[in-house]
Amino acid sequence: MAMRSWLAGATVVALLGAGACGSPATKPLFKTDPRLPAPETAAFDPAGVGDPYFPTAGNGGYDVSSYDLKLRYDPATGRLDGTAAITATTARDLTDFHLDLHALPATKADVDGTAAATRHDGDELVVTPVAPLTAGQTFVATIAYGGTPSPIEDRRFGSGGFFRTRDGAIAMGEPASASTWFPVNDHPRDKAHYTIEVTVPDGLAAISNGVPSGQSSQGGWTSWRWEVTAPMAPYLAMLAIGKYRVVTSEHDGKPVVSVVADTVRGDDAQTALARTPEITDFLAQWFGPYPFDAYGGVVVDDERVDEALETQTRPVYPASTFRRGPDTVTVAHELAHQWFGDSVSLTRWRDIWLNEGFATYAEWLWQEHEGTSTVRERFDRLYRNPDNRIWSVPPGDPGRGGLFSDSVYQRGAMTLQALRDQVGDDAFLTILRTWATTHRDGNATTGDFTALAEKVAGRSLAGFFDAWLFQTGRPQL
Questions:
Q1: Secondary structure letter of residue 29 according to DSSP
Q2: What are the pLDDT digits (tens) for 378-421?
Q3: How is the beta sheet containing 158-164 ordered, strand by strand?
Q4: Handedness of CA 347, 353, 354, 355 (dihedral sign)
Q5: Fewest C-beta in 10 Å: which of 36, 296, 405, 416?
């Protein structure tokens, strides 16, 4: 996510020289400092995965492998009707299981073709199959639902999810949004593949994630189909319905879908989106191959959307991003998330610096490449201010209230530059690429990252990471 208020040519050549991508060091791995937080081992709760920042987020007891969504939306009435076929595997014996579904009543459900009972408990849809499910069993739950969607309101994080617009709708938001338009296990640690079909009145576009897989029209309605071919965290799913200019091209044999709302004037938004392949190729020099089968971006024009979001394969940008010109720095931030946050996703929300710190560092790399400022200048400017509020919040565990704080973004990025200074350019590049490759399509924690850095460096970095990620105050250089 790019926050409005938080917001390398020669260096890259040097880094990509001989030995830059060498194998990690083979020296013994030093034990990580025991003060570093370890993953939780919370007791089983069917209505949550046990994330300490969001205890009721997601649902326990099963793992989803795919969602097959068929949606129909009528902008004239604001009604959404859908059917979700959810393929999942149980992690334990279950007499029932929970799905997150906000403000949309379920009208019918079955499990493996047999009718199942449902009840709503707030934003939890509880499904009870006729026969209990056994551990390790793969099943398909099909849920029919419908109603008038509404966003999730949070006093700290604002509104997120499904917004009705003048000519359609927008669905997006972090840390939660998916449950406002389909039943879901709404936590990043349960990633899945998606097939998304959205039927809307003729003349409107229905944009979502992944590879476009065709359109068909009948009786005044058009169905748009999308295939998400790599596992995706639920909050990264997006939907944009309305009058949009859709430009489709190709890069490296993959579709590039660039979408701009009809009401956005001028060429700056389209100019910035057109550089998506170029920016992605630049970032790939640092992070390794682009991890997905499609590229693109969506520019929406609604004042309720005032921040960009790294929705997988197709980041969403508010129109305000480009009111002062073709802002490619924000584009670089959201594209970096395709590696860090989307392909390599959080196991728990406290580790969000692994998303935002890396994406902010990518901004700095892109600005250096564009000749506006160097990474070193950005680091030094922040470090010279001992009163900066980033020193009061540890980015490795910022607290629920600090999830999107300056520290997570800026001090997170500074941690990476400080690590680069510690281990050298070659080792730093190896760490970045190995991180993106090892955890591709999966989830990871800060502990996983520190262990990798120590392995590549061949020495303990416990004191370094403790000072930069888990302590208050400005670390000594």
A1: P
A2: 999 999 999 999 999 999 999 999 999 999 999 999 999 999 99
A3: 152-154, 158-164, 169-172, 239-242, 205-207
A4: positive
A5: 36
Give the C-alpha separation, 381 to 271, whole Å: 30
24 pLDDT higher than 70: no
Q: Is 237 left (phi over 0), alpha (psi -120 to 50) or beta?
A: beta
Angle between helices 446-457 and 353-370 (to 10 degrees): 60
pLDDT of residue 348: 97
3-state DSSP assignment of residue 2: strand
Specify whether the CB–CB gap between 106 and 118 falls below 8 A: yes
- The span from the CA of 334 to the CA of 315, in Å, is 6
Domain boundary assignment for the chain: 9-43+343-470, 69-81+150-336
Residue 100, CA distances (Å) to 48, 49, 125, 157 in order: 10, 12, 6, 18
Question: How do residues 25-77 score in pLDDT, each as one tens digit?
Answer: 332 333 333 333 444 445 688 989 999 999 989 999 999 999 999 999 999 99
Mean pLDDT within 452-461: 98
Instruction: For domain 9-43+343-470, give its CATH number from 3.90.78.10, 1.10.390.10, 3.40.630.30, 2.60.40.10.
Output: 1.10.390.10
Question: Can you give the pLDDT at residue 33?
Answer: 36
* pLDDT interval class at 165 (50, 70, 90): very high
| Cα–Cα dist 169/290, whole Å | 29
Could you tell me what percentage of the chain is helix, strand and coil, using 3-state DSSP and rounding each to the nearest 5? 30, 30, 40
* Residue in 191, 283, 305 with CA at minimum distance from that of residue 237: 191
Bridge partners of 299? 260, 317
Q: What is the pLDDT of residue 465?
A: 98
